[in-house]
Amino acid sequence: MVEKKQKKNEIVIFWKPTKTAVSINNYNLARCLEKLGFGQFQTEDKRVSGKEIFLNENGILKIHSSSSIKLYIRRWIESFDDNQFLKGGSLDTTTPNIESASKGEILQAWSKYTPSSLGTLVLSDLQVYSEEQFPDTKKLNLFSDDSKTCHIRFKNGVVRITANKIEMIDTETIKKHGAVWESAILPRNIKVYKKPTTGLFEKFAVGAMKRRDATVKTKDWTKEYVMTKASHSQLKGMRTAFGYLIHTYNTPDVAKAIYFIDCDSELGEPKGGNGKSVVMQAIKYYKQTVVQDGKKFRTGAESGKFAFANVYLDTKFILIDDIRPEFSFDMLFSMITGDMEVERKGKDKFTIPSEKKPKLGLTTNYVIAGSGTSYKRRQHIVEFGNYWNRCNEEKESPSDKKHLGKMLFNNFDEKDWNEFYNYGFNCVQEYLKEGLVESPHSDIEKKVLKATIEGATGDGAITGFIEEWIRTDRLTGNYHKGDGISEDDFYEKFLEEYPTYAVENGGIWDKQKINTAVFQFAMGAKGMDYNPHLANKGDSKSQRRWKRGSAGNQKVCFRITTDIDKEFGSIGGKFSKSKSGKDDDEDTMKYFEKLAKRGV
Fold it and tell me: Which domains does the chain possess?
């Protein structure tokens, strides 16, 4: 641990009076700062790694900069009486003032000492600390959650949450286990409820999941919106996601970005105002949060290497809010599953280890491209309903008496805050019990496939053609078996259906592009596979490339299968009797129904 703050008479004097002015000794200034509790924190085993400056005050770590330290030292000097300043040595609080500089003279000298000089000449000379005790560093123990326990600190104690218990404990009982960042202590007193109560935030969250029932005819529009089966499922997904984000522990096998999107979003047709940003941003009341403008995140190159320059070691949640169709999700792949690299202008970059990095959330009003296993295993998607959107359309506000009766957070009283925090405690416990509960979202998956294949401005014609071919011609032609279909034949089929889309007729779709599209569709749709007999070679199109025919006369072919093909036997060809023995038309309809449930 860093030394506790020393008594004033043990502080190293870093100033010295001369005949004309007071001078500053950089070496003594560094030692004085160390005595006060300042140090550098190193996160990786590299000498050239960037380091964060912090102050340890009795186990509470505070992030500092050269500018904030300049102000800190000024106020520290101002805290002394004039007769406490001596010419050199230790600052003695009992000896009379002998040949000393006045406090005014010292402050005058300090006012001329620039933050840049402090940074380059002094702060880099401070003692370096690390949690792993890297070479040339001192060990600094940091308190952290584990996979089964979550701790949330308040002014009046710490709330400890496990899968079976939510309790308030005294801060002193865990203080010995390590220091904590200042931002981890929430500036409120809290009361843990023994029985769940429904507060305003929970009412808002439930409302955000409601969907319109078009069969309900009433003058009161609010009664048209109900909790459907999908709503309940998405609410479960949202609650466990909320708990996951509050819990600071990073489980290696649950490295996901939480993705909030509107269920009504379509290609090129944004839907908003449904409450997803309000729910996601509520995490800032639990932990240190950085909110990034999603409009600035487009492609990896455009976002720039300083995209996360405002992230510090105590940052525990990053929200990229309102991302646009041009957003490239794969630029976040390494950050989600690995360490996080932070770079600031004019400073050495530093790395936050994967187990310590902030968790990540995204919200969008658009359908964002990106399908396949690489995307799915890094995303936890929650679809929001359309109740609050309708509220906006009706020129009403959630704070109206007929809805919540007050503004969320801004007008909260003590009871409201207690209900809000207890809602979060219960979400954390739900997550610890059940993990991130995935909800079915086949509609969104289909829309994502469209965006991936056709782009943000696509009209859905290409994916519609592929989908229809998989549901019909694939079966009637028995292309899901045996030799499959050649890419040439598939392209000819496309030309018959959509001639104006082809390059030959002024469009943008050629044989290579359309066959890449069918590969993307098959690999992105749930329960579907492309040339599954080559799965052991990899998941790229080149790795699944399949040639058939005699030497010199080979054609590239493909075979698309679904996970229910075998269940329905020999549907296809002349629609012979299936394994069930039922009429083929009935079996075929059930087959299509099952495909639809899988998003096809």
Answer: 8-139 (no CATH), 200-443 (3.40.50.300), 460-597 (no CATH)
Residues with Cβ < 8 Å from 140, sequence gap 6 or more?
A: 1, 2, 39, 41, 56, 129, 130, 131, 179
What is each CA distance from 569 to 475, 573, 577, 581, in whole angstroms? 11, 12, 9, 10
Cα–Cα distance for residue pair 21/101, rounded to 1 Å:
9
Report in angstroms the alpha-carbon separations of 120 from 27, 80, 247, 293, 586: 12, 27, 37, 32, 78
Q: CB count, 10 Å around CB of 78?
A: 11
For the beta carbon of residue 401, count every other beta carbon within 10 angstroms: 7
C-alpha–C-alpha distance, residues 26 and 479, integer Å: 78
Q: Return phi, psi of residue 449, to 5°.
A: -60, -40
Contact, 361 vs 280, CB < 8 A?
yes
% the chain with pLDDT above 90: 52
pTM of the model: 0.78
The closest alpha carbon to 569, from 585, 581, 586, belongs to: 581
From its phi and psi, is residue 215 left (phi > 0), alpha (psi between -120 and 50) or beta?
A: alpha
DSSP 498: -
DSSP character at residue 2: P
pLDDT tens-digit profile of 156-210? 999 999 999 999 999 988 888 999 999 999 999 999 999 888 999 999 999 999 9
Alpha helices in 128-267 (DSSP H): 172-175, 200-209, 229-246
Contacts (Cβ under 8 Å, ≥6 apart) of 75: none
What residue type is 465 in one-letter code? F
pLDDT in tens, 107-129: 999 999 999 999 999 999 999 99
Cα distance between residue 304 and residue 340, in whole Å: 15
